[in-house]
Specification:
Elements lengths: L3 H13 L9 H9 L6 H14 L4 H18 L3 H7 L3 H12 L1 H10 L3 H8 L7 H10 L9 H11 L9 H18 L3 H13 L6
């Protein structure tokens, strides 16, 4: 484990299974992290909506719900009652509506931040975007950052040879960071891309944790 052959074998198996996607395909994520571009306000709001919806749902379900909601929003605007009929979570629907209605301001605020750390901190201030969700969103927006979700925490503990905990303790975070630094050297790929491949491999059982 934890060498280039292991990683690229996982990547190939995921692609063979047709599971190589998040909000974007693996190839799109890799390209975005290698050559970031500026998203439009509409795209920015759509990215926010996806990570808000993704929490607590399978990727397949999140993508389906997101597609239905965004198709409606693009045509009709962010009508709370109509969107609530598609997805019965008041807090998440309210957040999606607020972000859509203020998308130009939020998008400009994000890109005005001078550093990646400042941009990630800015994202945590958006409706229904917490610290882990902010990292997920930041990665989808082209920032080379790690999500540190439960699968990555478990994998980092295994890499570091330390007791596993699903909490992001300082020890677990250091182990995860050491793991990603090692894998960047092994693969010459962005941390954020390595993150999404290892997350998916763990989530679908290719890595046993």
């Amino acid at each position: 484990m934890f060498d280039a052959k292991w990683f690229f074998d996982l990547e190939r198996q995921i692609k063979d299974l047709g599971a190589d996607s998040d909000a974007q395909s693996f190839d799109e994520i890799r390209e975005m992290l290698s050559q970031p571009r500026r998203f439009s306000a509409d795209e920015f709001a759509g990215m926010c909506a996806y990570v808000i919806l993704a929490g607590g749902f399978s990727q397949k379900t999140a993508k389906r719900i997101h597609k239905n909601i965004m198709e409606y929003v693009y045509k009709n605007g962010a009508d709370f009652d109509a969107i609530f009929q598609m997805f019965h979570n008041k807090n998440k629907v309210n957040a999606i509506c607020k972000i859509w209605e203020n998308r130009a301001e939020f998008c400009d605020g994000f890109y005005k931040c001078a550093t990646d750390d400042a941009r990630i901190a800015y994202l945590t201030k958006l409706p229904h975007i917490g610290k882990i969700t902010a990292n997920h969103l930041a990665r989808n927006l082209g920032i080379d950052v790690v999500k540190y979700d439960v699968w990555i925490r478990r994998l980092g503990a295994q890499y570091g040879g330390i007791r596993r905990t699903d909490e992001l303790t300082p020890e677990i975070k250091r182990a995860c960071d050491d793991m990603f630094s090692h894998m960047v050297r092994e693969t010459n790929l962005p941390r954020g891309y390595i993150d999404v491949v290892l997350w998916k491999a763990s989530q679908i059982g290719l890595i046993k944790l």
